[in-house]
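Give me C-alpha cells for this 138-residue protein.
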Amino acid sequence: MTVCVDNAQHPLIIDSGAHCSIVARNYLDNQFPNWETQLLPTKAKNLQSASGKMTSIGTILKEIIIPHRKGNIMLNPELVVLDDAHIQGFLLGTDYQKMYGIDIYNSKKGILPLVPTWRRNFHLIYTRSLPMTHWRSS
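Here you go.
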C-alpha cells in the first residue's frame, strides 16, 4: 500500500511473518538524505530472514500516515534499520500490527481489514495537503 512519510508517498508492506518493523539502509539513503542524524541505538543486533542473517545498525522513528476512508491513520513506529536488506519501502511487522489492532486476515466476522479497531486504537488525522481522493493503494 502507499503511505505518506515526511509529506511524500512511500510503499508500505504489512507482513504478518515479521516480528519487528524494518526499513533498509539503502532505501533511507535514497529517500531521506539526512536520516543518520535521527538514528537511535537498538536492542536487536542480528535478525534472521528466509534468505539469511541480517544486521541492524539502529532504529529510526518515522511518522507513517495510512490513508483511510474514515480519516487518515497515523502510526509512529520505531523501525529497525537493516544494513543488508533489499526492501524498497517500509515493512510493518507484527509488533505494531498488534499494538494498533491491525487485522490483515479479516478475522473479525466480516469487518474489513484496518477497520475493526480504528476508533479505539488509531489516532485519526485530517489533512488538506493529502486528500483521500488522490491516494491509490497497491
